[in-house]
Amino acid sequence: MASIKDVAGLAGVAVGTVSRVINHSGAVKPETRRKVEEAIKRLNYIPNEIARNFKMQKSKMVALLLPTISHPFFSELAYYIEDELDREGYKLMLCNSGSKPEKELYYLDMLQQNKVAGIVGITYNDIDSSVSTDIPIVSIDRHFSKRIICVTSDNYEGGRLALRELVRAGAKKPAFIGTVIPVSSEIMKRKSGFVQEAKAMGVDYVVYEKPDPIIDEDKYYNEFFMRHDDVDGVFATNDMFAAQYIERASRRGISVPGDVKVIGYDGIQSHAYFHPVLSTIRQPVEEMARTAVKLLLGQIGGESFHQDTYCLPVMYRQGETT
Amino acid sequence: MASIKDVAGLAGVAVGTVSRVINHSGAVKPETRRKVEEAIKRLNYIPNEIARNFKMQKSKMVALLLPTISHPFFSELAYYIEDELDREGYKLMLCNSGSKPEKELYYLDMLQQNKVAGIVGITYNDIDSSVSTDIPIVSIDRHFSKRIICVTSDNYEGGRLALRELVRAGAKKPAFIGTVIPVSSEIMKRKSGFVQEAKAMGVDYVVYEKPDPIIDEDKYYNEFFMRHDDVDGVFATNDMFAAQYIERASRRGISVPGDVKVIGYDGIQSHAYFHPVLSTIRQPVEEMARTAVKLLLGQIGGESFHQDTYCLPVMYRQGETT
């Protein structure tokens, strides 16, 4: 393989000049640059970072797998993940893998082959058997059967907090509404926290769940309204569910927060231009993103972590719905 | 450099087996896989796709530069760009470059060095002198001094449409509100279309602009309300401006659409859970994304295009604000 000296020799310049051309650093006359580039081409010299990383079998790229970047929670997360990676000299590859396990498997393969240095994954697909512990992966929310570090918000505390805030706002019979997902995820603790706190406080409560995803939203909500017309508080598993519930409730003449207090989860509304401004359990998105990246880069650097789950504190944010 | 045959020889297996291990295709016994992997390591054999691409000086990666992925218009665009790239076997690198020209310059360098195959850029930074015509770049909305293909929505027609719809809704003195950006962008045509159509229809109108970005929003809107209290229609340069205007108008007791009809631009609301549902000029986001990718991959494949600007049709979407 041609060396930088060969290039310098052919171009009739100093090695330092070749280096400046390669690294786009320092001034090089256009004419000189052209000569160097021609020499690089003729000798098929491989100067770039990929080649260097490659020799070291190291990539400076991290893949982010998520259901869809068009969801506001994921796009905010992606923003901070990219920002944190950039600080550390890494680039982000983005993969929307919602209901496409084959895309996720492809990235796992890339990781096995060192084409990416690590993966941050928010995934609901059936890929458990393809995930292995000896490669750098950080999962958001989901647990795998193998030992994979998981970064999550304090869903259990979030559920407790939501119950308490609904009661404080006057609800006598609050309901949890959500779905049952087929993988083991920390987000199921939103319900457990809600239920445990209701029990601890001696509050009557309802749990309403259907298998994820909800195909027929009309059916989902109609059934809820029919079965539980005495509910006066709703803790929705996320803000979209909260917003959907409120829209459908208002069509039935149920006012929020007059008749029913509503709290969501996520905190996707970044400003108060659109209404209702949801009362919600706000996830610490930025901190989750930066923590995930730090843990991942730690793993890439050979660190091992004794803790499996990194659970970050949530906050109640009062809006117009409680 | 070691060949696949060397690896097969050292591992004591057939070349096909090595290939199956490398490509993760077909069944290989764990013990055999281990042997092959050991041989690969010992011989420092470089099997992977990056290396292959690399030899051909071709990367299968495209960089997307945008101000911030956390803005709903950009995240929707990114979703479709990734989807279209994936169909064609390309991966997406994501870069949030808002007010960080140095990040964009870094990616332009990567492109020069073939570390990425092409760039789709939505950029407002001062990078004009670093962009060159002989590398695959597609710009969204913005024009450069050199000949770079630009994909945009029909901003001029959007402006005309907005004026007509405001008038149809009863506005006698509509205003355009927006900012003046320091680069040459198609989005400035939103104003021109609005103004031309007002002139053509003989409608009295107002143009209210300040230099971008707006640092002091209070001042921006207060001045507008003070100077133009006779305005009964607003065409905002984008949906966020429309939402901001409505929020501030309502604080002053101005009702929308009762006193003032409002139309935005973009179409960032994907559902009707949050209010007001804006009347808006909807950009064909998906089509813009797929068109940008097709044009980019065409350039990467060596095609040349005679057209500079690809302008896609917009639609008026009636909401609750007209």
Automatic annotation (TrEMBL), chains A, B:
Pfam families: LacI (PF00356), Peripla_BP_3 (PF13377). This is HTH-type transcriptional regulator DegA. It comes from Paenibacillus plantiphilus. CDD domains: HTH_LacI, PBP1_Qymf-like. It comes from the Bacteria. PANTHER family: LACI-RELATED TRANSCRIPTIONAL REPRESSOR, RIBOSE OPERON REPRESSOR. Keywords: DNA-binding, Repressor, Transcription, Transcription regulation. InterPro entries: HTH_LacI, LacI/GalR-like_sensor, Lambda_DNA-bd_dom_sf, Peripla_BP_I. Residues 2-56 form the HTH lacI-type domain. The keyword Chaperone does not apply.
